[in-house]
Amino acid sequence: MEPCLSISEKINSDIQLFPNPTSGIINFISSSEIKNIEIVDFQGKIVIKENFNSLNAEMDLEMLQKGIYFCNILTSEGSNYKKVIIH
Prior knowledge:
mainly beta
């Protein structure tokens, strides 16, 4: 059973991101169209936001400091949150 996050939010577990951990470029692959991706720091601040209209996306995270970040990935099917480590 999927956890209920909100009425309009659905977890899409068909999203892959790699390499993780990364030191720069990160790739996203989804079975549903990726609309946008937000990279959020540990304090909840959006540090990068990019729009896409594709099943695949690539982002350059090289300018970010080393640490743990969260990816809020909005697809045509709903939102998904993934953790990414920058080393």
